[in-house]
């Protein structure tokens, strides 16, 4: 099965700096990944996804990088803002099927 | 935001009592899911539904049952609650199986405490 995890449980960045949150996965057959943002008292919110046929995907102020060789993906947030403070977690697995595994999350704190 | 409502939002109950959590969606999505979220763990799938009266077990289904009598409602029941079921429960929906091109949308959760 899949095992997804994050490298750091917490991350603090200065407002305006770029943030990088990392995630590793174990199953080389995993072909679809999502990054979620979860604010306190709320449910997870989809940020960006990427399929295994891509190395990089960009959204609004966010970029996801996928390195299939080392089974690693990262979420980059440009010009981090106070509203970006939240828990971020990755999820991955096969595109179709119930074995879509969620990582435990990294808490991002944005310092003024 | 996707129209997903979970009720109740908070509940405290005693060991051995039955508990039912409700998820209501207004998106007419086919697939609905129940997850639990615990400290140090990622979201874990309890049960999911792929249509009215069609449900299946997830990773951590022991001690839980579900029912889906209407497209819009998915109920999670703890027949006899135990302290290990203290958790935050999230409902999610998606238009297609797994995620495909339709990432799951989540409700805001039910915080359940079993004393």
Task: Quickly list its features.
A: 112 residues, mainly beta, 6-stranded mixed β-sheet, B: 115 residues, 7-stranded mixed β-sheet, 4-stranded antiparallel β-sheet, 54% strand
Q: Provide a count of the helices of chain A.
A: 0
Q: Based on CA inertia axes, which overall geometry of chain B fits?
A: globular
Structural class category of chain B: mainly beta
**Through-space gap between termini of chain A:** 41 Å
Proportion of residues in β-strands of chain A: over 45%
Q: Biggest interface between protein chains, with counts per chain?
A: A-B, 24 and 25 residues
Strand content of chain B: over 45%
Largest sheet of chain B: 7 strands, mixed
SSE sequence of chain B, one letter per element: EEEEEEEEEEE
State the share of residues found in helices of chain B, binned by percent: under 10%
How would you concisely characterize the structure shown here?
With 112 residues, chain A is mostly beta strands. Helix content of chain A is 0%, strand content 54%.
Plain-language structure description:
- The complex is a heterodimer of chains A (112) and B (115).
- With 112 residues, chain A is mostly beta strands.
- Helices cover 0% and strands 54% of the residues of chain A.
- Chain A has strands spanning 4-6, 10-14, 19-25, 32-38, 45-51, 56-58, 62-67, 72-77, 86-93, 101-102, 106-111.
- In chain A, the strands form two sheets. In chain A, strands 2, 4, 5, 9, 10 and 11 form a six-stranded mixed beta sheet that branches.
- The termini of chain A are far apart.
- In chain A, 37% of the residues are buried.
- With 115 residues, chain B is mainly β.
- Helix content of chain B is 0%, strand content 54%.
- Chain B has strands at residues 4-7, 10-13, 19-25, 31-37, 44-51, 54-57, 64-70, 73-78, 87-94, 105-106, 110-114.
- In chain B, strands 2, 4, 5, 6, 9, 10 and 11 form a seven-stranded mixed beta sheet that branches. Chain B has a four-stranded antiparallel beta sheet with strand order 1-3-8-7, with no helix packed on it.
- In chain B, strand 7 (64-70) and strand 8 (73-78) form a beta hairpin.
- Chain B is globular.
- The interface between A and B is medium-sized, with 24 and 25 residues.
């Amino acid at each position: 099965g899949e095992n997804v995890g994050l490298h750091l449980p917490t991350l603090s960045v200065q407002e305006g700096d770029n943030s990088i949150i990392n995630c590793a996965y174990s199953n080389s057959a995993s072909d679809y990944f999502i990054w979620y943002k979860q604010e306190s008292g709320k449910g997870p919110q989809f940020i960006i996804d990427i399929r295994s046929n891509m190395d990089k995907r960009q959204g609004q102020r966010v970029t996801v990088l996928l390195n299939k060789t080392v089974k690693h993906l990262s979420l980059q947030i440009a010009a981090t803002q106070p509203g970006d403070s939240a828990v971020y977690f990755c999820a991955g697995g096969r595109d179709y099927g119930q074995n879509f595994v969620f990582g435990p999350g990294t808490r991002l704190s944005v310092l003024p | 935001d996707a129209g997903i409502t979970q009720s109740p939002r908070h509940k405290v109950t005693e060991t051995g009592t039955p508990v039912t959590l409700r998820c209501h969606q207004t998106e007419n999505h086919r697939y609905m899911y129940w997850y639990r979220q615990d400290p140090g763990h990622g979201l874990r799938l309890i049960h999911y539904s792929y249509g009215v009266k069609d449900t299946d077990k997830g990773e951590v289904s022991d001690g839980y049952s579900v029912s889906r009598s209407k497209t819009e409602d998915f109920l999670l029941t703890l027949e006899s609650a135990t302290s290990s079921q203290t958790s935050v429960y999230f409902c999610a929906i998606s238009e297609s199986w797994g995620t495909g091109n339709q990432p799951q949308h989540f409700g805001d959760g039910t915080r359940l405490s079993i004393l």
